[in-house]
């Protein structure tokens, strides 16, 4: 029994040290408890000289019925329905560590589950972000390639236009040169004599 309560006391101390949960946030099953000592004796009256009814384990929820004039002893009803008197210094309105333990454990499990969910969601969002970045990189590369292709085609069209313009100028010059040459040649051709229409 002593080993059991020593283990419970160590667990309780560890929870206090880490301050996992404020007792004000917990729902208590009773307004008063036996303090987290090992155990205390319950007497038939408000004094140590009264007969001992039995012991009450630490952390037991109790109902306070009355207090003696000196407030050194408190009349209580324990969780087994026994009425008796215990020393007031062992009565506390703070939830016992034994009752806090399962509540804190449950809240800790809920917090761990929420943390795992958040971590999973964070990993999923990171993956989505990486995918989006890769997609943006691909689109940027494609856009740059298309811009380069447009520049190349524009330069090719401009070059073709220049070549076509040169061709037209060349052809026009050739036609003009041939015309001038024909004109010059025609001026040097001998003229035919006109036949006389008069009879000798």
Overview of the molecule:
By secondary structure, this protein is of the alpha+beta class. It has a domain at 2-103: SH3 Domains (SH3 type barrels, Roll), CATH 2.30.30.40. It has 2 helices and 7 strands, in the order αβββββββα. The chain has helices at residues 2-18, 97-188; strands spanning 32-34, 39-43, 52-57, 61-67, 73-77, 83-87, 91-92. The strands form 2 sheets. It has a 5-stranded antiparallel sheet with strand order 6-5-4-1-7, with no helix packed on it. The chain is rod-shaped, with a radius of gyration of 55 Å. Pfam families: SH3_3. Its main location: membrane. Residues 108-142 form a coiled coil. Residues 29-95 form the SH3b domain. This is SH3b domain-containing protein.
Order of helices and strands: HEEEEEEEH
- What oligomeric state do these chains adopt? single chain
| Name of the CATH architecture of the domain at 2-103 | Roll
For the sheet with most strands, the description reads: 5 strands, antiparallel
| Percent helix | 40-55%
**Unreliable segments (pLDDT under 50, ≥5 consecutive)?**
1-29
The H-level CATH homologous superfamily of the domain at 2-103, spelled out, is: SH3 Domains
Please work out how many helical segments DSSP would assign.
2
Mean pLDDT across every amino acid position: 78
The fraction of residues assigned to DSSP E strands is 15-25%
What is the name of the CATH topology of the domain at 2-103? SH3 type barrels
Kindly report how far apart the N and C termini lie: 173 Å
Count the beta strands: 7
């Amino acid at each position: 029994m002593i080993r059991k309560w020593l283990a419970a006391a160590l667990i309780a101390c560890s929870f206090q040290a880490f301050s996992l949960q404020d007792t004000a946030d917990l729902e208590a099953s009773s307004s008063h408890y036996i303090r987290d000592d090992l155990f205390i004796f319950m007497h038939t009256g408000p004094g140590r000289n009264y007969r001992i009814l039995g012991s009450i384990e630490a952390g037991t929820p109790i109902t306070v019925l009355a207090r003696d004039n000196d407030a050194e002893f408190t009349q209580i009803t324990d969780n087994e329905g026994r009425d008796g008197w215990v020393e007031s210094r062992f009565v506390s309105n703070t939830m016992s560590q034994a009752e806090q333990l399962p509540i804190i454990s449950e809240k800790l499990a809920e917090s761990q589950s929420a943390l795992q969910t958040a971590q999973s969601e964070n990993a999923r969002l990171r993956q989505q972000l990486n995918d989006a970045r890769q997609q943006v990189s691909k689109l940027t590369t494609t856009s740059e390639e298309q811009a380069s292709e447009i520049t190349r085609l524009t330069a090719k069209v401009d070059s073709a236009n220049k070549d076509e313009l040169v061709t037209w100028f060349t052809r026009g010059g050739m036609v003009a040169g041939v015309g001038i040459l024909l004109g010059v040649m025609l001026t040097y051709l001998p003229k035919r004599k006109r036949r006389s229409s008069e009879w000798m």
